[in-house]
């Protein structure tokens, strides 16, 4: 060994680099004849700009799920993973090797790190340490590994990433998105709705999620629109959160008033990812999209009668606001730009559906219209289970009768049922709800009586009875 090392040192010192390269090339050819294994290396950074390799990241995710069972040296990272009781994620330590089998074929995965001898300054982090994974397998299984196994690793890594990723809530500023962690706890189990309506929405979402080939076959972009409408406090925002948690999708809360024009709106759409829900809440209040066709005509007619100074002032006012038009929004929802990316859900919410332009909410743009109305008895039972942990009570029949006669939102019911102290009992909360329902019914009757009296006075005045 000492002799071999001495010869190698003399070879590296005395032989010119060009001759060294030629000797290595022929040595590798000779070695490949007698060495029956193939090695594939996946470096952490690739390309001229040393960007993070997607293949390396995918392999790291795949091995972190499988290596903890067989590796003897592991490194742990603390991350917040959704729906798990083990916040520690284990992965292979440097210079560690594991053995895996795929369809009866044995493979070796190794994690390695190279530290340069000379330290040099660089803006890229890989200049200090170079990490890579090495896959080793017998040459007779070359086609199986390159065509099937590596594809399996990438698909499995994508599934693991989707399962463990944190959901994000995005908001827009001009043409950029910023995000926070989405931690809304709403689920369909805690959503106050009729069971049949809830089941219909869940089935629709499941069908959409598995419908990539179907949408390709019919020639439509892989997207779906939902219109949520109803009085304030009926659970429209909670429905969106439940949809995001059920589908494991990110949420993009699009604020139209912060978008300058249609071009910026398209840029925002391009920057959204797949597997996401794009939300425009209270679309009837975001921008006056309902009357822009008529207003455009009125502006043209009005400009003829205005002075130059007034024109300049009006133009300055218009420049300050958003110039997003109904046409631009429709193109984003259902036009050519809507096909940029796949597996997206578009959700509009409104309290007054009659104010929206029919072209905005027609079928094909907003595929499913969901009306969220006042609290019914089935929704009340869900809220009672959530807030009081009771499924039946002797006061339920009385509450059911009052709910049939009184219009009250699930938000009001939930606030009334919520215990105000730790000592408050179930009977107290239910009696508070009954009292609230009765008071609401009395107020409604008094309001209706006052309206009838005013209407009668108007009729009498029109008939000349009252001067």
Give a brief rundown of this model.
With 467 residues, the chain is α/β, with parallel strands linked by helices. The chain has helices at residues 2-14, 17-34, 54-66, 142-164, 195-209, 212-218, 236-247, 262-270, 283-286, 292-303, 308-320, 326-334, 358-361, 377-388, 396-405, 410-417, 426-462; strands at 37-43, 45-46, 51-52, 74-78, 88-92, 96-102, 105-114, 130-138, 168-173, 176-181, 223-229, 250-253, 276-280, 344-350, 368-371.
Protein architecture, described:
With 467 residues, this protein is of the alpha/beta class. It folds into three domains: 11-164, no CATH class; 168-287 and 322-371, P-loop containing nucleotide triphosphate hydrolases (Rossmann fold); 385-462. It is built from 17 helices and 15 strands. It has helices spanning 2-14, 17-34, 54-66, 142-164, 195-209, 212-218, 236-247, 262-270, 283-286, 292-303, 308-320, 326-334, 358-361, 377-388, 396-405, 410-417, 426-462; strands spanning 37-43, 45-46, 51-52, 74-78, 88-92, 96-102, 105-114, 130-138, 168-173, 176-181, 223-229, 250-253, 276-280, 344-350, 368-371. Strands 10-9-12-13-14-11-15 form a seven-stranded mixed β-sheet. A four-stranded antiparallel β-sheet has the order 1-8-7-6, covered by helices on one side. Strands 2-3 form a two-stranded antiparallel sheet. A hairpin with a 2-residue loop joins strand 9 and strand 10. The protein is elongated, with a radius of gyration of 33 Å. The model is unreliable at 81-85, 291-297 and 306-312 (pLDDT under 50).
């Amino acid at each position: 060994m000492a002799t071999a090392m001495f010869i190698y040192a003399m070879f590296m010192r005395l032989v010119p680099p060009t001759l060294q390269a030629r000797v290595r090339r022929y040595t590798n050819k000779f070695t490949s004849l007698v060495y029956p294994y193939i090695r594939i290396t996946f470096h952490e950074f690739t390309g001229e700009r040393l960007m993070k390799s997607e293949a390396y990241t995918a392999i790291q995710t795949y091995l972190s799920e499988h290596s903890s069972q067989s590796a003897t040296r592991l490194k742990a990272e603390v991350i917040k993973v959704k729906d798990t009781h083990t916040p520690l994620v284990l992965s292979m330590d440097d210079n560690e090797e594991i053995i895996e089998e795929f369809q009866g074929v044995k493979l070796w995965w190794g994690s390695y790190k190279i530290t340069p001898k000379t330290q040099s300054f660089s803006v890229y982090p890989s200049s200090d340490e170079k990490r890579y994974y090495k896959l080793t397998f017998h040459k007779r299984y070359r086609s199986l590994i390159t065509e099937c196994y590596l594809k399996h690793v990438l698909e499995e890594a994508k599934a693991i990433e989707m399962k463990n990723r944190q959901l994000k809530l995005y908001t827009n500023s001009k043409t950029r998105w910023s995000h926070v962690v989405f931690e809304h706890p709403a689920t369909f189990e805690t959503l106050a709705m009729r069971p049949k309506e809830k089941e219909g929405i869940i089935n629709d979402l499941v069908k959409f999620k598995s419908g990539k080939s179907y949408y390709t076959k019919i020639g439509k972009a892989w997207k779906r629109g939902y219109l949520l409408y109803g009085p304030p406090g009926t659970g429209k925002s909670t429905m969106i959160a439940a949809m995001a948690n059920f589908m494991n999708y990110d949420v993009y809360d699009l604020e139209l008033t912060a978008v300058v024009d249609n071009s910026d709106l398209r840029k925002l759409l391009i920057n959204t990812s797949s597997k996401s829900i794009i939300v425009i809440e209270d679309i009837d209040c975001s921008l006056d999209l309902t009357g822009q066709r008529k207003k455009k005509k009125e502006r043209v007619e009005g400009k003829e009668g205005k002075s130059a100074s007034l024109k300049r002032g009006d133009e300055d006012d218009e420049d300050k606001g958003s110039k997003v038009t109904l046409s631009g929004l429709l193109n984003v929802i259902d036009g050519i730009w809507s096909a940029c990316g796949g597996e997206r859900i578009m959700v509009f919410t409104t309290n007054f559906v009659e104010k929206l332009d029919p072209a905005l909410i027609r079928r094909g743009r907003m595929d499913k219209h969901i009306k969220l109305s006042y609290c019914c008895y089935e929704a009340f039972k869900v809220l009672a289970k959530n807030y009081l942990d009771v499924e039946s009570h002797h006061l339920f029949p009385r509450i059911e009768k009052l709910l049939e006669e009184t219009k009250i939102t699930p938000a009001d019911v939930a606030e009334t049922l919520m215990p105000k102290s730790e000592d408050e009992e179930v009977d107290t909360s239910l009696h508070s709800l009954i009292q609230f329902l009765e008071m609401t019914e009395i107020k409604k009757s008094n309001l209706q009586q006052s309206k009838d009296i005013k209407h009668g006075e108007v009729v009498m005045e029109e008939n000349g009875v009252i001067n």
